[in-house]
Prior knowledge:
The chain is of the alpha/beta class. The chain has helices spanning about 10-20, 35-40, 60-70, 85-95, 110-120, 125-135, 140-150, 155-165, 170-180, 185-195, 200-210; strands at about 1-5, 25-35, 50-55, 75-80, 100-105, 125.
Amino acid sequence: xIRIMICDDQKxxxxxxxxxxxxxxxxxxxxxxxxxxxxxxxxxxICADVILMDIRMPVMDGIEATKQIKTHYLQxxxxxxxTFDEDDYIFDGLRNGADGYIxxxxxxxxxxSAIKAASTNSMLLNEKIACKVVSALHTxxxxxxxxxxxxxxxxxxxxLDVANEVKLGKSNRAIGQTLFITEGTxxxxxxxxxxxxxLSNRSELVICMQQMND
Length: 214
């Protein structure tokens, strides 16, 4: 069972998500909050696996809430709910460790896929958002790209294979099936890659791999 918390200042959005997710037996809604501060307070007493997080909210927005969650509740995954025109928030969320992004007008299958991916330590980027990330990374300076490539040279070919699959947003299981290795082996590879590159999470690894391919 995947325990979900929904954080959005619009009640109609929260109700809509609850209606969609209630159709899936493997998902349980354990709480909902109208802003990041309320959510942070709730986490002191409620266990959650994945949080669906709005960005623009009063009192505490989704970016600051994500930062605090990733500081104090490392095991909790955060999926950002966004609209297509919130570029700055998208990159701030990635830097603060968001585990996935879905557009607010996404269908139920994409939302559930994002939740399942995050719960298995994978990352799912909406295709449109992924294109924005790639486009933004093209503006990076040559020096920055060279620095990234130097870091990636520390990886073995097998580690690069795994990292490239992570970049595609695949789960550990899917990566294992593609590379003909076990899910546990993939998990070990990902941990080793993050250590070598001095990265904190898969979100940062996705950005790093995108920079290499600019």
